[in-house]
Write a structure and sequence with these properties.
24% strand; 3 helices; alpha+beta; single chain; 20% helix
């Protein structure tokens, strides 16, 4: 699992990278206050054991954000692992860049999943089945 750390600047940003543990409703409110109107929030969701898709889907739905899944396949001979990112944007035109259109697709929807808050989260409901 890779963690992406960030520091929120004083000026508004176009891109904001999040650490996986910072996916609560309250945290998203802070991130959105620091985003430009055409900005994109990139959330790294690659994980063998936990599926973070439902968490991101709920945050997007609550905040009226559009989503785009970017999946990169790995190349074991180059020691590159596959990775997945979910991009969130208030303006769907933010995803009209050729590089995003070529690789992006809508992520799976998760109706009925409870959003994480500062007071509630449950990693156990996100565990991937072991094969």
């Amino acid at each position: 699992m890779h963690a992406v750390h960030f520091i929120l600047p004083r000026r508004r940003r176009r891109w904001l990278l999040l650490q996986q543990s910072q996916l609560t409703r309250e945290a998203m409110d802070i991130y959105l206050r620091h985003m430009k109107p055409d900005g994109i929030i990139a959330i790294h969701v690659s994980n063998r054991y936990v599926d973070l898709g439902p968490v991101v889907d709920r945050l997007a739905a609550i905040n009226g954000l559009h989503q785009l899944l970017i999946a990169q396949t790995g190349a074991m001979y180059l020691e590159l692992a596959a990775s997945e990112w979910i991009l969130l944007a208030a303006d769907p035109q933010s995803f009209q860049r050729p590089e995003l259109q070529a690789t992006g697709k809508p992520p799976k929807s998760w109706p009925g999943f409870s959003a994480w808050t500062d007071d509630y989260n449950n990693l156990f409901e996100l565990l991937q089945p072991a094969y």
